């Protein structure tokens, strides 16, 4: 029996295999280039790998075992993955086998872009082929579990988060809310993971699109953002030196700007001037900051003044590191854009451009003033 055929038979015979690795010992015989020292581990013997690869490369293009061997030996072999796709389309293999093989390849080489691309392709085919929501949810959660396992083993694994973002587009509103809870818990344990910060921000925006009540009510969206702001302010206070946390805080503030922009379009120029003149530039007390969203039901409609106050409070965000300073400057610029102020040509704000505002210019100028 050839080495390629022996490897393929052992792979198909043991579906419980969860890891493939290389061992630097001679094979137990000249006919076998692999062994199963444990029930869930597949070992490829390095001295026999060259012969295994040679046999696989000289096999017929329709030989499923040959491309399986090449993928296990080198998950970065793009040609092998392309042939695996052709075999699947020709019904010479199954989605379950391909998913298992792809998972093993990623455990073997977790930063393989070709393996992640193949898994994304498999996910799209599987989720579209599911005839029921239960079947579709099973595919979604199985793939999410793989992403979680790989991200847990290897920090800042961009490919895993990119695939997770792709999967999230298939989630319903209630599933998005559950995924947000998971992402918050992950981010609390991995405060330097910028990929998770971007993913959580994308989930919040996705929830706004999926949930009809949130899509139609700016007040309901503001209540969600209030909860997100309280959470990120708390965790940033505990870990102020991590850029990923300030990145997510900026995402949340950007969504506040969207809410405020939607509200300011409904104001008359006179009402806008009154709102700017009465804005409280002092940091808000926690006891009065979220008074309008304390109840679970929407009792008080949010107005532009409240949204502006949230942004002003964020412009006073405490912190002495560079990320806090950049965040305060970013919020200051967003406020200027929000009230249709002309951005200054230099870093210093010319107060003559903001004569219609009483307190806001001095505060913004102090934030944007170069150190």
Explained architecture:
Helices cover 64% and strands 4% of the residues. With 371 residues, the protein is mostly helical. It has a 3-stranded mixed β-sheet. A hairpin with a 2-residue loop joins strand 2 and strand 3. The longest helix has 22 residues, at 243-264.
Briefly characterize the structure:
The protein is mainly alpha-helical. Helices cover 64% and strands 4% of the residues. The chain is built from 18 helices and three strands.
Largest sheet: 3 strands, mixed
The strand order across the widest sheet is: 1-3-2
The quaternary state of the protein chains shown equals single chain
User: How far apart are the first and last residues' alpha carbons, in Å?
Assistant: 74 Å
Uncertain runs are 341-358
Taken as a percent bin, the fraction of beta residues is under 5%
SSE class: mainly alpha
The best one-word shape is: elongated
Radius of gyration: 27 Å
Q: Portion of residues in helices?
A: 55-70%
- N-to-C SSE series? HEEEHHHHHHHHHHHHHHHHH
* Count of helix runs: 18
Q: Give the rounded overall mean pLDDT.
A: 81
Q: Would you report the number of β strands?
A: 3
Features:
elongated, three-stranded mixed β-sheet, 371 residues, 4% strand, single chain, mainly alpha
Q: What's the helix and strand layout?
A:
Layout: H1 3-13, E1 19-23, E2 34-38, E3 41-45, H2 49-57, H3 64-73, H4 78-89, H5 95-108, H6 113-129, H7 133-153, H8 158-168, H9 173-189, H10 194-210, H11 212-216, H12 218-238, H13 243-264, H14 269-277, H15 286-289, H16 304-315, H17 322-338, H18 360-368
Parallel strand pairs: 1-3
Antiparallel strand pairs: 2-3
Helix pairs in contact: 1-3, 2-3, 3-4, 5-6, 6-7, 6-8, 7-8, 8-10, 9-10, 10-13, 12-13, 13-16, 13-17, 16-17
């Amino acid at each position: 029996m050839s080495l390629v055929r022996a490897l393929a038979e052992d792979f198909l015979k043991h579906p419980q295999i969860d890891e493939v690795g290389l061992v630097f010992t001679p094979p137990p015989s000249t006919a076998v280039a692999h062994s199963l020292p444990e029930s869930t581990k597949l070992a490829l013997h390095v001295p026999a790998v060259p012969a295994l690869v040679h046999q696989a490369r000289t096999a017929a293009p329709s030989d499923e075992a040959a491309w399986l061997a090449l993928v296990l030996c080198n998950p970065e072999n793009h040609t092998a993955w392309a042939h695996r796709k052709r075999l699947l389309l020709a019904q010479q293999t199954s989605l379950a086998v391909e998913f298992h093989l792809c998972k093993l390849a990623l455990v073997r080489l977790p930063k393989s872009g070709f393996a992640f691309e193949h898994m994304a392709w498999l996910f799209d085919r599987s989720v579209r082929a599911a005839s029921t929501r239960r079947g579709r949810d099973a595919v979604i959660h199985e793939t999410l579990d793989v992403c979680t396992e790989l991200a847990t083993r290897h920090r800042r694994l961009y490919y895993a988060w990119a695939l997770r973002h792709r999967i999230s587009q298939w989630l319903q509103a209630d599933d998005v809310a559950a995924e947000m809870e998971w992402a918050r818990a992950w981010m609390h344990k991995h405060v330097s993971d910028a990929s998770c910060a971007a993913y959580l921000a994308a989930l919040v925006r996705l929830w706004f699109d999926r949930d009809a009540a949130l899509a139609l009510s700016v007040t309901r969206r503001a209540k969600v953002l209030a909860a997100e702001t309280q959470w990120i302010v708390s965790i940033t206070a505990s870990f102020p030196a991590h850029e990923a946390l300030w990145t997510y805080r900026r995402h949340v503030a950007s969504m506040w700007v969207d809410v405020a922009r939607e509200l300011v379009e409904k104001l008359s120029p006179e009402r806008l001037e009154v709102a700017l003149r009465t804005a409280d530039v002092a940091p808000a007390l926690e006891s009065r900051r979220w008074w309008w969203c304390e109840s679970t039901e929407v009792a008080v409609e949010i107005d532009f003044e409240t949204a502006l106050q949230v942004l002003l409070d964020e412009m006073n965000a405490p912190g002495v590191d560079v990320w806090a300073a950049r965040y305060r400057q970013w919020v200051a610029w967003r406020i200027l854009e929000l009230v249709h102020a002309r951005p200054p040509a230099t870093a210093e704000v010319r107060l003559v451009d903001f004569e219609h505002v009483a307190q806001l210019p001095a505060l913004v100028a102090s934030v944007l003033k170069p150190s």
